[in-house]
DNA sequence: GTTTTGCATGGTA
DNA sequence: CTACCATGCAAAA
């Protein structure tokens, strides 16, 4: 449990070992993910005994000798990265020697002052704090200058080489050994880690970070601004006390229950404003405060953070903090952050504050009216909000009122994050923000702009509003993926992670990349080869769900030929020749010339390529030779951006629903009682007002194609379902007419086979009868006189839809659906005789979708087999 | 008719 | 089960 990544394999984490781990694998070094490597018994013992590097890395580079005892220490791997210390004049020192050279300073009242509060929950924060490396990338650290810190903090992880240290900090081991933490703690820690700069642990193990952090506090001469990637060091913890980090707090508590019992509980007794804002100061030794101020070092306020849910833990980046830091002599203490909900970012101008955050960090208020609160933004502008509360369920609900101007000026939207910090020593509140799509500082060096032109760091970008407007359209899509959607993702995370996938734990930058290419990915999704799809109903709309994850189809290039007809180019997997295909073709990822059923002349790899090199070069996008960039498409048709966003979100859902194999039941029972703008469900993804740019009916973007394809598939399912229903009806009639009882098994078989009877080639006769009957039903044909003209509405207006939807499967809805199905069926029959059917089918699908929309998509789908593939060519491509 | 305000509701962790 | 909080909603302005 402690090590998801390492435990995922049954093999010892030591790549040189290959042994199987035991049931209870031994814990090794801390991985970059923050988890502990899981080792087989042999390697684990070696690690515990400090012989791991000797055994496995003896031939590796990086061996150095302790300057004091000359013991050889491997300094070139993560395993032993915490076994030594860097010395000021150069060289290293093993822990044992380093420890000997340390003298506990007498002026450090840490045992007393450190007993801040009895916060058992410090564990979480501490773990997080540990993860928040402030030191990655930091320069030389004067290790020996912080003896006390060394003593205390060094006792973090397993330090086999220094048993005494381990003993000294037994509780630290407990703290840092993931396996001893409750799952929730780990989860939270991981969640927290997700927001940290990726380089947090690149250079140093967590222990070093802690150590260095402590040292740094002692080293007043070294500015560490660039080291403070995260406000991990809590204010009082960054003092030169031995436990320079939050981590020790709980250790103290844990180890010495008598310590730290006197502290006031921030949540229970919020200090008065003035005291509140400086409340951390008294906890820290004076020197600490000075150091902090001088260094301008941001650090999170631990005083209440352990009370907060991890999602409120501030994750300011260094850059953000620097920007917030108006006064270079001030210290920014991040307090908490809040990801804006739709309500927060909406026009109401009320930002709901997490209760604990409000009570911990904001002035206490006794009247619902609250009081006006001045908050500075990153540019130094002062905003005045009304900080107040409403009585709610015998509790309080805290809000900041009047935030609209601020939110607007920051151009924040749901999914973006506002961070509340405190400016020390003034105690003023400062408000930073982070766009949902902003990336972490580690990305800033090489990625000032994300692929979609979106600002990598919102606050900098904000200085130039024009740049925002420039990227607004496209950026919004990314934000949707990253921001609002991230909310959804987070909500679903547990589900997702509990299933087979751990995909959401990818690094931030990967996420961003993923989001950039989200639409592309959607357009490429194909049903798994041997899928037996079931239907997931989300907000009344059906989605295919597969036992297997959908596969990625082949990226192709859409273009027009000389006649202006839409075509696409696909590259053969084998010969790499590019083949011209109908734009409607949906290709599997492994597509070869032999699959080119559209062009008999180029059915094999031996056939020459139509394209010349120049043509191909023109065809291929500059950066990506295969996948047309989403943003490019957006640029070309900015009007589609918003609709794209919605479609994209729909597509995302499909990815989640299929790829993550969301339980159909779970999805089906997850109701969205109301329109939730931040939600990515089919209803909520649309612009609330229904305004905004629309997709044209003729739009052939990947997303539209995907949507069309999906709906087509759905209609096919309904067709099947309908036939089966009618077949059943017919059969029942027959039963009534001929009271010859069918064997019960047959009945069962028939019913049971409903979901899989649509394998296409083995429909029962009854089904076919039902089919035929429905085709000939004049009343249903009549109903095809729909006012919707059979166009696919790519810009569904959810609110209207909601209005129209009775919310339940009423007869009227069924009728509409029925009509759509029948019309589709009929048209299919007609088309089957005429050959090319794309145009008319498109109309039908459009109708079906319209009806679908009206009916709010009652779910009664049976599964369909290979409908996608079978009808891939009949994608509506009419212009 | 629109916006604001205060509270209630219900989903979710 | 409970607390939290996002958001709906109706009354008030």
Automatic annotation (TrEMBL):
Residue ranges, compositional bias (Basic and acidic residues): 721-731, 816-825
SUPFAM superfamilies: DNA-binding pseudobarrel domain
Keyword ATP-binding attached: no
Keywords: DNA-binding, Metal-binding, Nucleus, Transcription, Transcription regulation, Zinc, Zinc-finger
One GO BP annotation of this record: regulation of DNA-templated transcription
Domain (CW-type): residue spans on this chain: 563-613
The keyword Ion transport belongs to this UniProt entry's keyword annotation: no
One Pfam family here: B3
TF-B3 domain segment(s): 336-437
InterPro entries: B3_DNA-bd, DNA-bd_pseudobarrel_sf, Zfn_VAL1-3_N, Znf_CW
GO CC annotation: nucleus
Compositional bias per record (Polar residues), positions renumbered to this chain: 222-233, 249-267, 439-453, 755-768
Molecular function GO labels: DNA binding; zinc ion binding
Protein name as it appears in the record: CW-type domain-containing protein
